Amino acid sequence: MPRFRYEALDGSGRRLTGTMDGGNRGDVIAELNRAGFLPIEARESRAGAGRTLREMLTPEPKSEDVTALTLDIVMLLQGGVMLSEALVLLSQMDSRGWRVRVLRELHRAIASGKTFSAALAEHPRLFSPVYVKMVEVAEATGRLDKALASLAEERQRVERLRKKLVGAVSYPAFLVIAALSAMVFIFTYVIPQFETALEGFRDKVDPTALMVFNASRFLRTHGQDITIGLGAAALSLIALGRLGASRGLWLQLVAKLPVARTVFRHEVTVQFCRTLAVLLGNGVDISTALRLLRDLVRLPAYMLEVDGVVADVRKGRRLSEALESRSFLPRHVVRMLRVGEDSGRLPDSASRVAVFYEARLDTALTRAIAVIGPATMILVSILIAWLIISVMTALMSVNDLLK
Questions:
Q1: Is the CB of residue 77 less than 8 Å from the CB of residue 145?
Q2: Helix, strand or coil, per DSSP, at residue 329
Q3: 77, 260, 305, 341: which could join 145 in a potential S-S bond, CB 3.0 to 4.6 Å?
Q4: 14-46 residue pLDDT tens
Q5: What interhelical angle do 258-281 and 331-343 show, nearest 10?
Q6: CB 330 within 8 A of CB 320
Q7: String of b and e for 100-133 (b: at least 16 CB within 10 Å)?
Q8: CATH class in words for 62-153
Q9: Pairwise CA distance, residues 389 & 192, whole Å
Q10: How far is CA 121 from the centre of its chain?
């Protein structure tokens, strides 16, 4: 019997971790529920969860690919095709290896008597707990095509938001890389051309200029070692990312920056409210919805806040009351969610908040690009100008000495 490593919350909101034997992930989660705990996650703990090192280092299909697969299934279901037949048909029409493999495995699982949600749960790197839970509820209510359509729409919205975030970072990152490349060129090819003119006068050169020439010599002497070190560091970061290493520390550091703090806060609000609206609107209970939301939050500090909210709701407190004692959502957002609770239309209120804050997030990203881009260019220009002035000052000093 396989062993699973689980995370769960006890009645006081304290996080527990451990291992448990079970036939599958669903059995472990059910056992934790019977024990009075709130399951957060359960993953098979054998080495690599049955995956080879090559598989772990192989890039997973993109989120857009999974969304496209979902839309294909929705199209066939809405056309009157049975789910099992839809999976077979798509596997025969497709030529991409990963899609054919996944579709065949899903079909085999359904043919053996498993539900579609149980089959999806066997591919946790492709189908998130939110995805699996919504399918599970939809199977019970007979609304699978509508739930999958809702999932696809939400995934497309998240992917558009992700592209905006990447776009906000890409331009400044490009400027920084271009500046570093220009500086490396100056240090390794331009400055050495003037170094011979300083022979015999190094003790009379301005200290700032001398520092530039020393830095150039160091870079040329140890350039190979520096390149190897940077390459090894880059490969290590890529490998850690493929192996699922946590990025929480980096995100926390970035989130402390003035502009990034606002962007992250808006992004968390949009993600929380949008996903809450989708889950509740498709019949998922509030306690399970909050548990699933916790896995979507990327910042560790916000994860702890959501854990506290989950614990409070399990004790019988209303969602708005639990959120009032936390600080990761703006106060007026909590008030709007309270209005939704009072009127029995919490999904609608959460959806309206998400739309409002998505517009604010777009504005914040536009403002961030408008500030970071020119600021980076000014900083790069000042740095290169300092290098040029330092070299020219040194040459002028030598010229004065020769006179």
A1: yes
A2: coil
A3: 77
A4: 677 777 777 677 777 777 777 777 777 777 765
A5: 10
A6: no
A7: eebbeebbebbeeebebbbbbbbbbebbbbbbbb
A8: mainly alpha
A9: 15
A10: 20
CA quadruple 186, 188, 193, 195: dihedral sign: positive
In three-state secondary structure terms, 355 is helix
Distance from C-alpha of 191 to C-alpha of 185, rounded to nearest angstrom: 9
Query: Residue 44: what are its φ and ψ, rounded to 5°?
Result: -65, 130
Q: How many CB atoms lie within 10 A of CB 220?
A: 15
Rounded distance, CA 160 to CA 351, Å? 17
Instruction: Please give the sequence-ordered ranges of beta strands (E in DSSP) within 147-289, or none if there are none.
Output: none
Q: Quote the CA–CA distance of 114 and 262 in Å, as a whole number.
A: 45
Let me know if the fold of 62-153 is the same as that of 154-403: yes
CB within 8 Å of 300: residues ≥ 6 apart:
248, 252
Sequential DSSP letters for 290-322: HHHHHHH--SHHHHHHHHHHHHHHHTT--HHHH
- Cα separation, 27 vs 333, in Å, equals 37
- The C-alpha atoms of residue 216 and residue 148 are separated, in whole angstroms, by 59
pLDDT tier at 328, thresholds 50, 70, 90: confident
Specify the pTM.
Answer: 0.65
Q: Which of 91, 70, 88 minimizes the C-alpha distance to 145?
A: 70
Q: Domain map of the chain by residue range?
A: 3-50, 62-153, 154-403
Which amino acid is present at 52? T
Q: d(Cα 352, Cα 281) in Å, to the nearest integer?
A: 13
CA gap 39, 322 in Å, rounded: 19
Is the CB of residue 336 less than 8 Å from the CB of residue 352? yes
CA distance 102 to 358: 33
Domain 154-403 has CATH 1.20.81.30: yes
